[in-house]
Amino acid sequence: MNNYDVIIKPIITEHSMEMVADKKYTFKVAKNATKPMIAEAVEKVFKVEVAKVNTINCKSKPKRLGARPAGRTAEWKKALVTLKPDSKTIEFFDGMM
User: Which of 26, 50, 60, 82 is 20 to 30 Å from 41 at the Cα level?
Assistant: First the structure.
């Protein structure tokens, strides 16, 4: 699996931007990605040092649009990546602040 297949996209919310000060970054990752795979992908793509990775499986929720039959949102996986204190920051997130 390619590093860019593991990291799908960054998650940009108010809460995730507050955590950037503590060198914690949030990403949407592949459902079958493991913590070591995510750490390796972040280190190679952004050239930083990862201290730890926490993952959350986000379940699907009911959704409805007007009178159409109810459906469900997609299930996905979220990764919270913490960098080492002596590591540099990820420039992509610095531009968002």
Answer: 60
